[in-house]
Amino acid sequence: MGRMDWMLQLQVLADTAIAMALGGAIGFERELKNRPAGFRTHMLVAGAAALLVGLGQLVLEDHRLDSDLRVTVDPLRLVEAVIAGVSFIGAGTIFARRGSDVVVGITTAASILMVAVIGVMCGFRYHLLAGLATALTLLVLSAIATVERSLAAKARKLRDKQD
């Protein structure tokens, strides 16, 4: 195995580390809110997504596979594999309370999907896009929740005045 092979593998590892850090930021927010999937889960999902995409790229570069048989990797198939795997994890975070119309965990399931996509972006080396998507996700999870609580409190006060 040549120096270039090692360099490519180290690049995939770096991409995976970046994905894990970004996924960890989102997971930390979920952890602070005591949600069913937190810091470690989000890190691992983002890292696995980046690693799977990076592995696909390494396979394309592997000259040991050069022969009459052409090895092709469809990047969208890799993404589909990530999404299929993440769907099971996301489904496990959603709970319906017995005897109630309340469903809990949908936002966490959505955040797991988002970190998987962020991991895919890192695997394809779109680090800026991944970082900005992480910032947008954190904005949605924190700032919008604050606005929702504020609007709900105002609506309660309005109802109390009317009663």
From TrEMBL:
Pfam families according to UniProt: MgtC
Residue span, MgtC/SapB/SrpB/YhiD N-terminal domain: 17-149
Keywords: Cell inner membrane, Cell membrane, Membrane, Transmembrane, Transmembrane helix
Recorded superkingdom: Bacteria
Compartments it resides in: Cell inner membrane; Cell membrane
Major place of residence: membrane
Membrane topology: Multi-pass membrane protein
Residues passing through the membrane, by range: 6-27, 39-58, 78-95, 102-120, 126-147
InterPro entries on file: MgtC/SapB/SrpB/YhiD_fam (IPR003416), MgtC_SapB_SrpB_YhiD_N (IPR049177)
The keyword Lyase appears for this protein: no
Family stated for the protein in its record: Belongs to the MgtC/SapB family.
Protein name, entry field: Protein MgtC
Organism: Lysobacter panacisoli
Lineage, uppermost ranks: Bacteria, Pseudomonadati, Pseudomonadota, Gammaproteobacteria, Lysobacterales
